[in-house]
Write a structure and sequence with these properties.
two-stranded antiparallel ribbon; 485 residues; transmembrane; mainly alpha; Ion_channel_UNC-93; 2 strands; Growth Hormone, Chain: A; UNC-93-like_regulator; 19 helices; disordered C terminus
Length: 485
């Protein structure tokens, strides 16, 4: 009798597993746009937070020097921001995210962005460098909290075959902030001759940043987010502080992370050259604002198109990863090759790139080449960042808790690279040397990432976490182990 019962149980279990697999193979290929507790809508919400906070920050940075003629102050502030972030990203933010939850982590992380914009407003009247640097340091803490929580949502909630599109959707909404912010600056400062943005620009940015913070209150607990295959995004039990540090240690000991560190460090390394040495030094204020808008527009388009490729249903995960790295390397070399052509036209005896005189209206055809280069710098950055987050989704096995740890490691490496680049930029290094160092570092990062790219496999969904199926769930937590009980 017991033997018969055991056989019936095994048969029943097999049927349930087959049903679960059927759901996974059919419905999980589609993104759910109708449920508020779907990964899509949670990513949309955190995207609007990013739109309002770091999106507006990017708009100010894209203008060059935070909208000020003195780019040295902005660079020093960025050193403080990146230095604080480097520590917070890896030792603080992942723990806070997994224990406090994404809602309050993102909300608290967004508030310092308002303070930073306010410090630039004050600088226009007082020239207080200390206030800008101090606000930047506080922003380093906020950025750590916001970006680690955001990364855990974007890479930990979707299924493997949705990562590229989800990253692209986030990048479109997020960089809409940089695009619209730059266009606001372009309109408000169209006739300005001062070289710095107006007070109304900073006030408008502060209001948008505050609104972005409020959007974070719409985020759900990861346990309440249901994927398209009817699994929860996370288990109900939150890890303790000790468990978090043990998990982080395992991440840091992963050889694949060591292989990716230069690739991660390079993610923001070129921003200082592109925005402070190229855009801020060559163009008039209104042209810098317009260029900034087009830079973020290029990011929006390029990230989504590349994301679609990374979700290509006709290729397996390994093929998508290998081709993704190959395409990224090719585009990087082509774009920076164009940058070399531009550098050759800059020099003390050249009148082609006179400082702060290139204008989208008065410079005529001479403006087209420099503009297209800056546009494609945006495309290069978006493709690089999209691939970075795709690798994190692969490493974390779609677990938001694990994703927070990997995002923390990435953001720490990124902040270190950004701090080094800011230091080089703030010391007024010769622009030819700065360009050469940036390009060489990008080549090094691509070479170091080859072992990781070659190791990519078709990892199963949820390979690193407990999965909770909710189809027919009446309040009971039916885990994988329950199905086999």
């Amino acid at each position: 009798m017991d033997h018969q019962t055991s056989k019936e149980t095994e048969s029943h279990t097999s049927v349930e597993e087959e049903q679960a697999m059927a759901v996974s193979s059919s419905d999980s290929k589609k993104i759910c746009y109708t449920r508020y507790n779907s990964p899509f809508w949670q990513i949309v919400i955190v995207s609007f937070v990013a739109f309002g906070c770091p999106g507006m920050y990017n708009a100010l940075s894209g203008i060059g020097g935070g909208g000020q003629l003195d780019t040295t102050t902005s660079a020093k502030g960025h050193i403080a921001l990146a230095s604080v972030s480097a520590v917070g990203n890896i030792f603080v933010a992942p723990v806070v995210t997994n224990i406090l939850g994404p809602k309050w982590t993102v909300f608290i992380g967004g508030l310092p962005y308002v303070l930073y914009a306010g410090s630039l407003l004050a600088y226009s009247h007082t020239a207080s460098q200390g206030f800008v640097i101090g606000a930047s340091a506080v922003l380093g803490i906020g950025a750590s909290l916001l970006w680690i929580a955001q990364g855990s949502i974007m890479t930990g909630y979707p299924l493997p075959q949705q990562h590229g599109r989800m990253i692209g959707i986030f990048w479109i909404i997020f960089n809409s902030g940089g695009f619209l912010g730059s266009m606001i600056s372009f309109g408000l400062n169209f006739s300005s001759k001062s070289g710095t943005v107006s007070d109304s620009t900073y006030i408008a940015f502060m209001c948008i940043m505050a609104a972005g913070c409020l959007c974070a209150l719409g985020l759900l607990n990861p346990y309440n987010v249901i994927r398209e295959d009817n699994s929860r995004a996370a288990v109900s039990k939150k890890p303790g502080v000790w468990e978090e540090f043990v998990g982080l240690l395992k991440v840091l000991r992963d050889w694949r992370v060591a292989s990716l560190i230069p690739f991660w460090m390079a993610a923001n390394y070129a921003y200082n050259y592109q925005q402070n040495t190229y855009n801020a030094k060559l163009f008039t204020l209104r042209t810098r604002s317009f260029n900034g808008g087009m830079y973020w527009l290029a990011q929006m388009v390029s990230s989504y198109i590349f994301g679609l490729f990374l979700d290509n249903p006709y290729m397996n995960r390994r093929q998508r990863g290998l081709w993704g790295f190959a395409i990224n390397a090719l585009i990087s070399m082509v774009v920076w090759g164009g940058g070399l052509a531009a550098q050759l036209k800059r020099g003390p005896n050249s009148d082609y790139y006179a400082l702060n005189e290139m204008d989208l209206i008065t410079s005529g055809g001479k403006y087209a080449g420099p503009f297209m280069l800056y546009f494609f710098y945006g495309s290069f950055d978006a493709i690089w960042q999209t691939l970075v987050y795709w690798t994190i989704g692969y490493l974390s096995h779609e677990s938001p808790e694990q994703a927070a740890r990997y995002v923390g490691a990435f953001k720490c490496a990124e902040a270190v690279g950004s701090a080094i680049a800011s230091k080089v930029n703030s010391t007024k290094t010769n622009y030819n040397v700065e360009f050469a160092v940036d390009w060489a570092f990008i080549v090094l990062a691509i070479v170091c990432a080859i072992p990781f790219a070659w190791s990519i496999e078709d990892a199963p969904a949820h390979a690193g976490q407990e999965t909770v199926y909710v189809e027919g769930d009446k309040g009971e937590n039916r885990t994988n182990s329950d199905l086999n009980a």
